[in-house]
Protein 1
Amino acid sequence: MAVNNDEKEQIKPIGHNELAHKSLLQSDALYQYILETSVFPREHPCLKELREMTEKHPRNLMATPADEGQLLSMLIKLINAKNTLEIGVFTGYSLLSTALALPSDGKVLALDVSRENYELGLPIIEKSGVANKIDFREGQALPLLDELLQNENNKGIFDFVFVDADKDNYLNYHKRVLDLVKIGGLIGYDNTLWCGSVAAPPDAPMMDYVKRLRGYVIELNKYLAQDSRIEICQLPVGDGITLCRRIS
Ligand code: SAM
Ligand code: CA
């Protein structure tokens, strides 16, 4: 069947750059507008320093963008979170956003398989005056979560959980995190739009890591949509964040 020019335009394959793009908005200019108008003017100076330090890191694409850090901060304050968990720290942008948003007696338990990148950000976190709220534990997150769950007293202790680590384990994290967050508490699963690849044809050109993990993110999204223990809201902020409120 012949394809006319208009149709060709609509089915044009998604380019490499589009799938590796940091924002899902329609243009870079619009994203820049949000950052410059609403985000950067209110960004804590230590968050700014941490962001600028992380920009020089070869894996800087892993960092939570500043607009998403602002969202996390807003959510933590709205739900009056006091005790939170983060899985996947890297240099600590989301962790510092969290620690700054928590009340002075708040705590965040932060898990990452590697301490090395956390230590790059640590001097800045210490300068910010909120390092006392952070309990960083190095190791694979799954066994650390299982260890927490061995103690019945840890069930339902977290008000907020931010999951931003290995995407192929998100469903394994979900099983455990649901027991650790309180009923009425909130979980944020990050990167649930996976550079837009979740809606792209499987043969669309995409970075190798995007292609390798895309199926896991699609499975997670399907699973969360039918899980009656939670209410969900998937937001196109950053690379997509799915908020889950535990209801049972
Ligand atoms: N939230 C971070 C931020 O704001 O910059 C970004 C986290 S980065 C996308 C993912 C992190 O998950 C990396 O630091 C990596 O070491 C960690 N990670 C990957 N697999 C892990 C695992 N199995 N257990 C714990 N941490 C893991
Ligand atoms: Ca992320």
Protein 2
Amino acid sequence: NRVRVAVLHGGRSGEHEVSLKSGRSVIDHLDPERYEVVPVLITPDGRWASGDGEPGGLAHAIGLFEGVDVVFPALHGEFGEDGTVQSLLEMVGVPYVGNGVFAGAAGMDKEFTKKLLVADGLEVADGVVLRAGDETLTPEEIDRLGFPMFVKPARTGSSLGISKVDAEEELAQAVKLAKDFDTKVLVEAAVPGREVDVAVLEHPDGRLEAGPALEIRIDGGHAFFDYEAKYADTTTIFDIPARLDDELREAVEWQALAAFRSLGCRGLLRVDFFLRDGRTPVVNEVNTFPGFTAASQFPQMWAAAGVEFPELLDILVTTALARR
Ligand code: ATP
Ligand code: MG
Ligand code: MG
Ligand code: MG
């Protein structure tokens, strides 16, 4: 008997379009011999539809899980990656792939991600949190962080609302943009150096594995890894494995596993690092459900380790079912 997997995609988030792509590739790569796929589309206004059925509200959504063995939330951003959908799945009592309520919420909020990781001894970028009502930084904070700075909404992904700020006169505009995405905004010191991401995977027996690190090399005149460079610019290069000496490779792998444990993750996590001055790992942020198209980092990193997409999905689903 095949396992019935409901693949949630779309979602009520700025990353709706990205999730449509991730969901599509999950649907296409689940082995049809082993899995019966139930595609579940969530519209941008939060209505749920199974297959080509009519979309409905939450009461309808709960009904869609009847007869489903496991849910695969292929959702990015708010109302999907942040623990909210996971909370619904907990209430319904259906097993699901990946991170739970706490890790989702902690990983989505960059303020709290950093606080938790620092408490466990990991290094993060220095920064200031602007809450609702806070207009900008104090002169002391500006001096402390220096330029360039990065201004980002506390809880988005895909670089939405993020700006690099090279001088003080650009700061207000960057904060205003970030506030369009979130009431809470982070202003961080820029960390100069390389950018390297690590994939962590939980096996059905509970063993954690860090995949080969990936280095992002941005070209084409992008000041940083922005939305365009992520999804439109074909000149962005991923080096897998990243060219790291043994010591640095072990350091990022170990820190990625530490971040996974620190946030109470399950199933998977992508940990994004800077290598300050090319040497010291600094955690930038985590993604509790990273991009999942065949060309996305997470599946690419595992493919480079010899774990092809269908096998990767198999591990994720089997781990979710083993947890019961
Ligand atoms: P993702 O799509 O990975 O979820 P995100 O929207 O959560 O992205 P970040 O990863 O925090 O955003 O930042 C996006 C990009 O901005 C980074 O990949 C990096 O290129 C740049 N960046 C962010 N913060 C800093 C910083 N403090 N120093 C240098 N570069 C930064
Ligand atoms: Mg992110
Ligand atoms: Mg993300
Ligand atoms: Mg990132």
Protein 3
Amino acid sequence: MHLPYATNGDLTLRIARDPYRTVSRIAGKLEADAFHGKLMLADTVFLTGPDCARVFYGEGMIRAGAAPSFLKMTLFGDSGIQSLDEAEHEKRKAMFMSFMDKGAPDRIAAQVAKALDDLARKSPDRLCVQDEMERILTRVACDFAGVPLSEDDVEGRTRMLSALFEHAAPIRPTFLAAVANRKRANTWAANLISGARSGAITPPRGSALEEIASYRTVDGAPLSREVAAVELVNVVRPIVAVSCYLTFCAHAVATNENGWEAVHDRPQSFVQEVRRHYPFFPLVAAKTGRELDIGGETIAPDTRVVLDLYGTNHDARLWDDPMMFRPRRFDDRKIDPFDLIPQGGGDHHAGHRCAGEWVTIAIMRAFTDWLTRIDYRRPKQDLDLAMSRLPALPESRMIWENVSLRQ
Ligand code: HEM
Ligand code: MYR
């Protein structure tokens, strides 16, 4: 048995133009969940759907050397948790997961709720939801991680951290600014690590800054200052990135008849449907660590494998009318580790599934609760999702006017 080949040569340009839909479209044409293609000139196996997601997160897949190098220059940084395997991954992941214990999602959600109410109390005439949420989440993320942040630095740190996820891919000139911001972010975080290690900064017990600064690898060695910095950014940056999901929540309310009703009547289902429906993280990459059977074909070791997250979240075999925004579908649905996978699939502890999934959901719930407590006007604006962007935010970044807390 052999997997089919995608025709039309290298898929890099097609994926760059339409990162969310290309893999599932080709899979549909080939009538196969797994197929061969080329990505950046290298042989790659593309996977979509729940069965293939299970293979992607199964035995024999590794992450060392799997992420495209441009992501190391921006979003991920070099030598962080995303590139680890086996014992070192397990140990470092346990540290990341420990940050999420002790009520962290609830604590973060309470802080977000307070910051949102403070914002509405100022009754702004006009605001950009994406920009405002990035600012709020930068404050919350730094506080959560035990990182000092003065009010004067909020704007600069917000721009620095947001560039890493808003311009992560080399598809627009803004990528170069993201590379520069990755260098700044690494220097900023490395100084914080040095400060925590020397005692110049005393981060709260159990905070990410303290734990990363004092972490010991499987061999008992501390992390280099550079790697520790990358891991600190791996805690702070993604919390700021939840801003995109908040803009998507606002977009879902603005563009769907059932959006507003769902925010009131079934907020948890609303949040899950936003995570399923909206185009955020398109694809994830791994490599075969040995000869591996995929769909009946033996794939050579060291072959890149790409899993289509967005396509799996829109797979018609799993979701009725997958392109429709329909929160009710989650009212009594049991979620499987391999069907709703906007933040990766499988197990959080044993695999690479996103460590921040519960925090993400808690922040989105705080935002949707807030929507029921405020009034605002939405001026005419371009709400089209720019599907070639990563993430595919609405063109206007969501503008509101006359925002106020309801009396
Ligand atoms: C990994 C998405 C928020 C921390 C991942 C992965 C995805 C993802 C797709 C990779 C899964 C894989 O490699 O198989 C997202 C999205 C978020 C988000 C769309 C929304 C903003 C967060 C938050 C945190 C976080 C809030 C932490 C506070 C991490 C970490 C990893 C990760 C540490 C690496 C896990 C590992 O390699 O074992 N995320 N994430 N993420 N995420 Fe998130
Ligand atoms: C984070 O880790 O900061 C949270 C999510 C950020 C998502 C940014 C979207 C761009 C990802 C590009 C992936 C290209 C895959 C080959």
Protein 4
Amino acid sequence: NSAFEYCDQLVKDFEKVIEHPILSKSSVYYTGIDLGTAYIVLAVLDENYQPVAGAYRFANVVKDGMVVDYIGAIRIVKELKQELEEKLGTELIYAAAALPPGTMSLDSGVIKHVVQGAGFEITNLLDEPTAANAVLKIKDGAIVDIGGGTTGITILKDGKVIYVADEPTGGTHFSLVIAGAYKISFDEAENYKQNPKNHRELTPVVGPVIEKVSSILNRHLRDYQVETIYLVGGTCCLAGIETSIARQTGIPTYKPQNPMFVTPLGIALNC
Ligand code: ATP
């Protein structure tokens, strides 16, 4: 889908610099911090907003978009910051972070303190769909962010956000269902799920969870004339999820090549 041209290139460049950071002579670096239910991701851009480094870690410090382990969150962000600073040979000063839609008034103070506690100067705190749309650049349609713990829904019309919602169903539920079906631990199910080679086999196993997500979408989207759904978030890495959602909602559904890093990169672009 050509709508994702910028997004796909940016994410591809980012995936490269996670492995091989670019030692640029940038006058300033912008760090995007995504504190997720499943992952904490740091994305670093240079003065031209090009990715130069990135790091992520599986973490249990956020639940349903809320920080539940404040000290743990600070420690992980601090460690990832140090790791990136060593690789880049420079201090990272500025950072932005994001919150799921609708939680700004509840949790923004905590997120701010995590970012500052890790040693950053916070320049912006935005909502996740706004961050994602800095990369997707969509004017009309719904951005559906299926992360670890939650599914964020944002409807845009003429470039403006007209509706947001956040529902507590996400990748964790997919893993729980897989763990139950295969009689394996949650961690084993996570690993199994994340291997694209297993996706075809998993399709019938996770089918009911995808149907649940679609029914949530149908409920939120029914009052708006949404013509296109754009999927982001790690769970949308599942092969074929876009086809199931399109069929179950009756709305054409697309996803970028790698939906996983769209939000963290969008946060960094807004730093
Ligand atoms: P939330 O947005 O709910 O706070 P998060 O920001 O941690 O959570 P993401 O990083 O977007 O969410 O996605 C994490 C989820 O994506 C996890 O449930 C993880 O298992 C899943 N995931 C990551 N990679 C893959 C993959 N290749 N295939 C299937 N699922 C994946």
